[in-house]
Design brief:
The chain is α/β, with parallel strands linked by helices and about 300 residues long. It folds into two domains: about 5-115, Nucleotidyltransferase, domain 5 (2-Layer Sandwich); about 125-285, 2-Layer Sandwich (Nucleotidyltransferase, domain 5). It has helices at about 45-60, 95-105, 115-125, 190-195, 195-205, 215-220, 225-250, 265-270, 295-300; strands at about 10-15, 20-25, 30-40, 70-75, 75, 85, 110-115, 135-140, 145-150, 150-155, 255, 285. It has a five-stranded mixed sheet with strand order 3-2-1-4-7. Helix 1 (about 45-60) packs across helix 2. The longest helix is centred in the last third of the chain and has 25 residues, at about 225-250. Residues about 1-5 have low confidence and may be disordered.
Length: about 300
C-alpha cells in the first residue's frame, strides 16, 4: 500500500519543545505505530540535532521502507534568509536548522511552527475537523497560534502566520501598560500576560506570592480567593487577545490547548463584548489529541 510520495504511508512526526522532544511513527490511515519522548538539550544546538537524530533512529527500528519526516519547532524558518527565526529556544535562532537536520537524518525534512502543527492536526482529524477556518492556540511556557484554512496551513510569505503572541495585549488598562519586557525585545506582548509564566508573574505582582500557573489553578479549585482572582484576570486578558483574532480572521472554530479546561465555558462570554459583530458568540474547543496534536500535525506536513 503506497501513501504520500511513495513512502508506503509511513510518516515520522517530531515535536521539539522547550523541555521534551516527542516523536511518533504514523502509518496509513493516521494510525500510530510507535511513540517515544526524550528530554530536550538546553542551550546546545549540536546536542539538539543529535537528540532528534537518535529519536528518529529509534522510531525507524524495524522499518524497511522509507518514512517522510516532519518537525514541529518553536519558531519558523525565514523564507528570506533560510534561517530559524522567532524561537523562544533561542539557541536555534539564526541557524539553518532544516538543512542541518536534513544532513543529520540523511533525508529531506519539513519544518513548521509547533502551534501551526497543533492547528493542522486539530483541523484535519481533531476537534475542528471539517471546519473551514481554524485558529489553534497553545498556551504553556509561551503563547503560540496557528491558522488553517481549508485544511491547509496559512503561514504567509514571512513564515509568521498565526504569530499572535507577539502582538500587544488589546484594550490594555492603565495598569497593564506598557507591560513587561518580552524575550523578543518588545514590551507588553500578549505572551507576557497569557503564558503560564505570565500568569505566575501577574499573581506574584498582585499578591507577593510565588506560585506556578499549575499551582495557582490548583489553589483556585480549592477556593483560594487570590488564585481565583488571578485566573479571572488571566481569562479576561486571553479573551481580549482571542477576540482581536476573531475580528481579523473570523474563524469557524478556535482550539485551545494547554490544559486550561476551566476556560472553555468562560472565554466565549468574556470575548463577546469585544467581537465586532451582531453575534459575538464563538466556538472554542479542547483539542481532541491533547498534547499529541503537535507531533501528529508534524507528521502531516508531507500531506
Amino acid at each position: 500500500m503506497t501513501g504520500p510520495s511513495g513512502q508506503n504511508g509511513l510518516r515520522i512526526g517530531l515535536d521539539l519543545g522547550g523541555s521534551k522532544i516527542e516523536g511518533i511513527l504514523m502509518g496509513p490511515g493516521a494510525t500510530e505505530l510507535a511513540r517515544y519522548r526524550v528530554a530536550t538539550p538546553r542551550n546546545d544546538y549540536a546536542a539538539t540535532i543529535a537528540a532528534i537524530a537518535d529519536l528518529t533512529a529509534r522510531l525507524k527500528q524495524g522499518i524497511t521502507a522509507g518514512a517522510r519526516i516532519g518537525i514541529a519547532v518553536p519558531g519558523s524558518i525565514s523564507p528570506l534568509t533560510g534561517l530559524m527565526q522567532n524561537a523562544n529556544s533561542t539557541w536555534l535562532n539564526a541557524r539553518p536548522f532544516d538543512r542541518d537536520l536534513a544532513v543529520a537524518l540523511a533525508t529531506p525534512v519539513r519544518l513548521a511552527n509547533d502551534a501551526n502543527c497543533f492547528a493542522l492536526s486539530e483541523a484535519i482529524d481533531g476537534a475542528a475537523e471539517n471546519a473551514r477556518i481554524v485558529f489553534g492556540v497553545i498556551l504553556g511556557t509561551g503563547c503560540g497560534g496557528g491558522l488553517v484554512v481549508n485544511a491547509r496551513l496559512l503561514d504567509g510569505p514571512r513564515g509568521i502566520g498565526g504569530e499572535w503572541g507577539h502582538n500587544p495585549l488589546p484594550w490594555a488598562t492603565p495598569d497593564e501598560y506598557p507591560g513587561s519586557l518580552c524575550w523578543c525585545g518588545r514590551k507588553g506582548c500578549l505572551e507576557t500576560w497569557v503564558s503560564g509564566p505570565g500568569m505566575a508573574a501577574d499573581h506574584a505582582r498582585v499578591t507577593g506570592e510565588a506560585h506556578t500557573a499549575v499551582e495557582i489553578a490548583a489553589r483556585a479549585r480549592c477556593g483560594n480567593g487570590a488564585a481565583r482572582a488571578t485566573l479571572f484576570r488571566h481569562a479576561d486578558r486571553l479573551a481580549r487577545g482571542l477576540a482581536h483574532v476573531v475580528n481579523i480572521i473570523d474563524p469557524d472554530v478556535m482550539v485551545l490547548g494547554g490544559g486550561l479546561s476551566h476556560l472553555y465555558e468562560l472565554l466565549p462570554q468574556l470575548m463577546g463584548p469585544h467581537i465586532f459583530a451582531d453575534r459575538g458568540s464563538i466556538v472554542i474547543k479542547a483539542p481532541k489529541w491533547g498534547d499529541a496534536s503537535g507531533v501528529r500535525g508534524a507528521a502531516r506536513l508531507w500531506d
